[in-house]
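Let's practice the habit of predicting before peeking. Look at the sequence and jot down your guess about where helices and strands might fall. Then scroll down.
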Amino acid sequence: MSTTLAPDIAAALKSDRAAFKIFEALGPSHQREYLKWIDEAKKPDTRARRIASMIERLSVPQKQ
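Done guessing? Here is the structure:
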């Protein structure tokens, strides 16, 4: 993975193997979009909710 992850995001991804694999498979621009969305949170609880939302979205099997 070429994108450097904040410790809280890395820990969340490591806790869900499926989400981690999907995140790694995303293109760099899509990875950056997720990280930017999380980093734009002004409050810690908002950041935590966004991380949880990202994990949930990445854990759902995608239609092809």
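How did you do? The mean pLDDT is 91.
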